[in-house]
Specification:
By secondary structure, the protein is α/β, with parallel strands linked by helices. Strands 1-2-3-4-7 form a 5-stranded mixed β-sheet, with helices on both faces. Helix 6 runs antiparallel to helix 7. The radius of gyration is 26 Å and the shape is elongated.
């Protein structure tokens, strides 16, 4: 009987401690505003940036149930940004409850830290390495110069485009700049460049193999025939997309890329307050898919 009473007392004491400390752990968390998708508690974003995020996130949520939420806070109240972001993500319920396809972009002004928190459902699309690379390329260079609107909007666009492409949305109008201030190529442009490169290598191989084999056998080898067919397909694709590529000025961008001055979807060649939208809320998603933290 005494043992049972001791166990009950221990349980009651433990529960009391949890009850008393729980409000202290969550009191520092900011609450979602009526706009939900953008919560500028650090008061660093312009109305234009807030409205832009609202418009894009609202459309993304409507079409895919995925939610991108931007939060800025004056400070973290002594908490680590990783724990703060996880608690904030769950408090807001970012993303669909079933798909857990939420993304949180969190800026702590006083600590000068930025955190990308990813829901389980987007873990495969946005692994830790990618979210860190996106920060290094599209966000941090601007935040280091206190260009809050530029850094957050540019980073938001990068993540929006990545998620939008995953859901087959038209994101051709999304403009992204890398650390050198140049826009990122679209998927179609990247495919054209790779096709163009493979075409050149394939054509050189055809000439080399044909010259050696034909000189000896006076016939075309299977390798030459296969490479020839590949060449025809690649030439057809390049000719089909060439007019569009020329209109977008891809020729200049390709030259820059070859000299390591241009980033293509994060890969470099050769080393190189609120608006009037109100009334939104989270879908009940939870984090756990990882993320990355950067200081600025």
């Amino acid at each position: 009987m005494k043992k049972i009473r001791k166990k009950l007392n221990a349980i009651i004491l433990f529960s009391l401690v949890l009850f008393l400390t729980y409000p202290l752990n969550t009191e520092a968390l900011v609450k979602p505003t009526d706009d939900f998708y953008v919560n500028d508690y650090a008061d660093i974003l312009s109305k234009e940036t807030e409205e832009y995020i609202m418009e894009k996130s609202t459309a993304l949520d409507k079409e895919t149930k995925a939610q991108i939420v931007v939060v800025t806070v004056p400070d973290l109240e002594g908490e680590s940004i990783e724990i703060y972001a996880t608690d904030l993500f769950r408090e807001f319920g970012i993303g669909d409850k079933e798909e857990n396809n939420g993304l949180l972009l969190l800026l702590a002004k006083e600590e000068r830290q930025f955190r990308v928190e990813v829901g389980y459902g987007l873990e495969g699309l946005l692994p830790d390495g990618l979210t860190g690379r996106y920060q290094d390329t599209y966000i941090i260079p601007y935040l280091e110069k206190n260009k809050w609107n530029k850094g957050i909007k540019n980073g938001y666009n990068a993540f929006y485009k990545k998620i939008g492409e995953n859901y087959n949305l038209d994101v051709s109008n999304i403009k992204i700049e890398n650390a050198n201030g140049q826009k990122e190529l679209s998927t179609k442009e990247v495919m054209f460049l790779f096709a163009f490169t493979i075409l050149g290598a394939s054509w050189a191989s055809v000439l080399m193999i044909k010259r050696r084999s034909y000189r000896k056998t006076k016939t075309l080898t299977p390798g030459v025939i296969i490479l020839g067919i590949l060449n025809v397909l690649l030439i057809g694709y390049c000719l089909y997309t060439l007019p569009e590529m020329l209109i977008t000025g891809l020729g200049v961008e390709f030259i820059l890329a070859m000299f390591g001055q241009f980033g293509i979807n994060g890969i470099y060649f050769f080393g190189g307050g609120g608006s009037s939208f109100g009334g939104f809320s989270g879908g009940g998603g939870s984090s756990g898919g990882g993320g990355s933290t950067r200081g600025f």
